Amino acid sequence: MGAHIIDGKKIAELVRAEWKARADKLIQLGTQPGLAVIIVGDNAASGIYVRNKVKACNEIGIYSEVHAFPANAQQNEVLDCIQALNENSHIHGILVQLPLPSHFENNRVITSIAVSKDVDGFHLYNVGALVTGNTIFSPCTPYGVMVMLERNHIPIAGQHAVVVGRSNIVGKPMAFMLLEQGATVTICTSKTRDLLQFTKNADILVVATGKPRMITADMVKPGAVVIDVGINRLNDGKLCGDVDYQSVKDIAGYITPVPGGVGPMTITMLLCNTILAAERAQSGG
Ligand code: NDP
Q1: pLDDT over threshold 80, residue 285
Q2: What end-to-end distance do the CA atoms of the chain give, in Å?
Q3: Do 30-115 and 139-263 fold alike per CATH?
Q4: Is 244 a catalytic residue?
Q5: What is the per-residue pLDDT for 47?
Q6: Per DSSP, which regions of the chain are E strands?
Q7: Does the annotation count 42 as an active-site position?
Q8: Residue pair 113/36 in contact by the 8 Å Cβ criterion
Q9: Ligand 1 centroid from CA 210, angstroms
């Protein structure tokens, strides 16, 4: 029997509907959630991501504004902008679209965002909070994965979760969130010797490498939950994940497709975090 396909679009719609009700309630109370997005340079993909975020905000009732800087902008101009947004009571979430141009210091910029407005969860304080189990904002992509697991009633405690990839935005926070829920977690990287030996033993396998279709059926335990975070554009313009979907779907118990899997969840969780930030501000928390 083939795997159950986890429909990220459908789960994202359900989650957005639930959180729209929370946004509506806030608006009734006089607080419209607000998100500010900062973008530096003219990276085409970043431009698309920002437009998608603004569109999603409009649809759910979040006020949004974009602060666009040229690629040769000075870091201080961006820091001044963040400072003003930190003090702006109409803005509850601030997001800096990565990557920044190479003359920027990522951590300096991200840590200038008020912790209470860091809806991406990338501020070093928020990273520490996540690691110690006192999460303030969960980073959006792994948060989306956790919601997908939860909505499919997939048990985590006691399971062996293998995360392939150790980036600060996906792999590492993913591993800590699974660990927090009681999984036994293994993190694999490009340096891992004999990757198959680890992936083959995973009850839950999360792949975030940016390497098209690198996880093949022989690397997966029958019945495993396979979450494919990867989004890769092939030469023919089509998108594919880091998992060889066609072969793995016949062996896995659950699998996420690309597109239509983790992707739709990421922006959804950003909306949730922004509404959460506004709720906290509204209640004085
Ligand atoms: P990074 O390039 O920052 O990290 C990739 C990680 O994968 C690194 O830790 C690297 O190891 C590891 N890796 C690379 N090759 C291998 C290999 N052969 N075996 C084991 N590990 C390997 O990528 P991101 O984490 O930012 O993104 C990963 C993928 O997820 C990309 O396709 C990206 O587009 C996608 N993505 C999707 C999102 C969504 O919303 N669905 C959101 C964010 C990202 P090492 O550290 O040793 O180099």
Answers
A1: no
A2: 49
A3: yes
A4: no
A5: 94
A6: 4-5, 34-40, 63-69, 93-96, 160-164, 184-188, 204-207, 225-228, 232-233, 239-240, 254-255
A7: no
A8: no
A9: 5
Q: What is the mean pLDDT of the chain?
A: 97
Decide which of 3.40.50.150, 3.40.190.10, 3.50.50.60, 3.40.50.720 is the CATH code for 139-263.
3.40.50.720
**In which band, very low, low, confident or very high, does the pLDDT at 111 lie, cut at 50, 70 and 90?**
very high
Please, are residues 123 and 95 in contact by the beta-carbon 8 Å criterion? no
Is a pLDDT exceeding 80 seen at residue 253?
yes
Quote the pTM value. Answer: 0.97
Domain covering 30-115 in this structure, CATH number: 3.40.50.10860
Instruction: Name residue 67's beta-bridge partners.
Output: 38
User: Which of the residues 118, 120, 203, 242 is marked catalytic?
Assistant: 120
**Domain parsing of the chain, residue ranges:** 30-115, 139-263
Tokens of 263: 């992707």
CB atoms inside a 10 Å sphere around CB 15: 20
Q: pLDDT for 173-218, tens place per residue? A: 999 999 999 999 999 999 999 999 999 999 999 999 999 999 999 9
